[in-house]
Write a structure and sequence with these properties.
By secondary structure, the chain is of the alpha/beta class. It contains 16 helices and 5 strands. 58% of the residues lie in helices and 7% in strands.
């Protein structure tokens, strides 16, 4: 009986083992046919992540348009999201460049040899306004042109230039220092170019700044030409030659009056009789001024000559003889140049113009 029970147990175990074997075989076969995640993990690693990625909608990458390039003069306006308009100064500079190219005639300069101070005599009768705040540089220009017959008018800054032009526009050109106190050369030139009354006047930059962007800045302001410092005689000659007509200058020197009668009468409150009385006193007191100045300079009495010229400058301005006052101012400035003695050639100019002044006073009286 015990043997029969043992045989039944062994048979049950065998049946159970067979059932388990068939179960595992069936499960493995089913998994391979249905593609369960477990099977995927066992046969193809990593594809489950790919399947999950497919379940998420693909997001298309947005391609933005390239930014608009910025020009040197127009940066982006972050507050508006666009390009700001051209500034008023930029618009003015652009107009000045075109205006200079259009209105100022220029002739070609022929080839020439070494230039000396004597060569500038061919420009006799021309009038040049010099804007320069450095006294030494003023003396250099005066020394170069003292014997030429060119009339020089000196200004110490841009404001003086504008003041001079308000009462006198008879200049062929302005030699304009770029850097000066009060009003610098750039701003003074912009103001000049904005006034049609000064369209005939060339503005030439005087500056030690010779870099390309510095020169462009000068042109933008309305300076048609540039002279580098230290000043070269040949460069100055070429510019004066290119923008002058010697025959016209000689005619103008003859026809232009030294005495501005309207200005003199205005100074005297509109009273012509009083003005004539002032002119009579001027003739009595200063008719011999060329002779007196010559004596003072030949005797090297520079201090007395300086004081006498200061007196002449004030008086001639009051009677309306501005050209005489300008020559006297240049002569006074040249007194300290005892080596070159450029004041002697200026004295000759003073004598010539003063004789014309006396003739005009006699004709008016």
């Amino acid at each position: 009986m015990f043997n029969e029970l043992q045989q039944e147990i062994i048979a049950a175990i065998a049946i159970g083992v067979a059932v388990l074997v068939f179960y595992f075989i069936f499960k493995r076969k089913s998994a391979s046919q249905t593609g369960t995640p477990e099977a995927e993990n066992n046969t193809k690693p990593g594809t489950a992540a790919q399947e999950r990625a497919k379940a998420v909608p693909e997001k298309k990458e947005e391609v933005s348009a390239p930014p608009r390039p910025e020009t040197p003069l127009q940066g982006r306006d972050e507050t508006r999201g666009g390009v700001p308009p051209i500034s008023e100064d930029q618009r003015t500079d652009s107009l000045n460049r075109r205006k200079c190219d259009r209105i100022i005639p220029k002739r070609s300069v022929p080839e020439h040899g070494k230039i000396t101070k004597q060569n500038f005599a061919e420009f006799a009768g021309e009038r040049i306004l010099v804007a320069e705040d450095n006294l030494i540089n003023q003396k250099v220009i005066l020394g170069l042109l003292a014997e030429s017959g060119i009339e020089l008018v000196m200004a110490n800054d841009g404001q003086e230039v504008l003041d001079i032009l308000e009462r006198d526009t008879n200049f062929v050109m302005i030699l304009m220092d770029a850097h000066m106190p009060r009003i610098d050369g750039f701003q003074a030139t912009r103001i000049i170019r904005a006034n049609p009354q000064y369209d005939h006047i060339l503005v030439v930059a005087l500056s030690g700044d010779t870099a390309a962007d510095d020169i462009q800045k000068m042109k933008d302001a309305g300076m048609s030409e540039q002279l580098a410092k230290p000043l070269r005689m040949e460069a100055l000659y070429d510019i004066i030659y290119a923008y002058t007509d010697p025959e016209k200058a000689k005619e103008a020197a003859v026809t232009t009056n030294v005495l501005d009668i309207d200005k003199g009468v205005e100074t005297c409150g509109g009273d012509e009789d009083f003005y004539r009385e002032i002119l009579s006193e001027f003739m009595a007191d200063y008719a011999a001024s060329p002779v007196k100045l010559g004596e003072l300079l030949r005797s090297k009495n520079i201090r007395a000559a300086d004081a006498y010229l200061l007196d002449i400058i004030g008086v001639t301005e009051n009677i309306g003889a501005h050209p005489i006052g300008e020559i006297a101012s240049a002569l006074k400035l040249a007194l300290s140049d005892t080596d070159e003695q450029s004041y002697l050639s200026l004295l000759d100019r003073y004598k010539h113009h003063f004789e014309r002044l006396l003739d005009e006073i006699r004709a008016y009286r």
